[in-house]
Amino acid sequence: SIPKFRHESGELKEAGVWSLDRSLAPSSTDGLNFIEGLNAGWLVDTRAQKIGNGRWFISIDDTLDVFDVVRLPGGKVRLTNGAVDFECAVAEIMPYGVVVFTLEKHV
User: Would you say the pTM of this structure is higher than 0.85?
Assistant: First the structure.
C-alpha cells in the first residue's frame, strides 16, 4: 500500500492508502503516492525532482496541478493541460513529482 491523496482546488488532502499492484510499480515504492482527481487518478513518483519531458504534478504559486511538460532551450518549459497551454521559466515552477501512469474515468 502507498499513501493516497485527493486533489482538491490545487491542494492535496490525505485520503488513506491505495493498494498498488506491484506489477504496475517501479521496483521500489519509496516516494510513490496515488492522487485521485475528479476524472482521473495518478501514480506519482515524488522522488523525481529534475523536470523533464512528460506528465508532472507541478506547483505554481503554491497551487498543484497536472501538466504535460516539454523542456525548451534557455531554461524554459511549455506546460499544457486541458485548461491551459503556456511557457515559463523552470525556476518559476516547483515539481511535486513525475506521473508514472494515469487512470482515466470514462463513465
Answer: yes
